[in-house]
């Protein structure tokens, strides 16, 4: 899929109208200014990673960057309103920094081991500033969950929108969920803590299920697309999605909790085997 003038226009619109703005923007998203300039001129494509970084830094979605709307029909399911950020439009820099810092601390230390004072110290803000943006510690966790949803949504749209073959798209979708070191491992850590809080606190369950449903429906729509293309066996998409999502969850938990013999590599092999045998029907 070719990049459009609309994508480049929307990215240009995110740059402040001031001298040196393009250089500052490039530095903020970790991109060489020359590469950014070429991409904005249309002589170089933005990579999926760059689109995700632009969206994260600017407080918009990759779907908005590519299609002009957060809710535009795309290759993945769109988050439910309750699972989307409560902040409309680009986030203020202070709020974004507080949320990113809190999210990282929760992933590394655990929700119950992170205090508001810890967040304030880590991001160089006062406790009053944290409370201004997030009145309670629970509000921090719920926004951390929404950040998980946005990160996954952005990553999937950026990576999958150029892959038409549903078999290749499903393999890539699964790859994007593996708890590899770094950001994805931290996302899994936050998810595990949300699962725990949801089991103990019924008030968390509505938001949790709205968040999880996006992942479920993304798998299901990919399977249906594969059946339309003739690359997947004709079986109940929802039943197969339940099996695949449960397998992803179970294997991911084994990796994160250090089960002997478990690894990201083994998880990848198990999931590909399931996709080939049960979804694509190979070898049957």
Distance between the termini: 34 Å
CATH architecture of the domain at 163-283: Orthogonal Bundle
DSSP, total strands: 0
Task: List the helices and strands in order.
Answer: HHHHHHHHHHHHHH
Mean of all residue-level pLDDT scores: 92
- In the CATH hierarchy, what is the superfamily of the domain at 163-283? Tetracycline Repressor, domain 2
* Low-pLDDT regions: none
Give the helix proportion (percent range): 55-70%
Note the main sheet: none
Top-tier CATH class of the domain at 163-283: Mainly Alpha
Helical stretch tally: 14
Q: What integer value in Å does the Rg equal? A: 20 Å
Which overall shape is indicated by the principal axes computed on the Cα atoms?
Answer: globular
Structural class given helices, strands, pairing? mainly alpha
CATH-derived topology of the domain at 163-283? Tetracycline Repressor, domain 2
Provide the β-strand percentage band.
Answer: under 5%
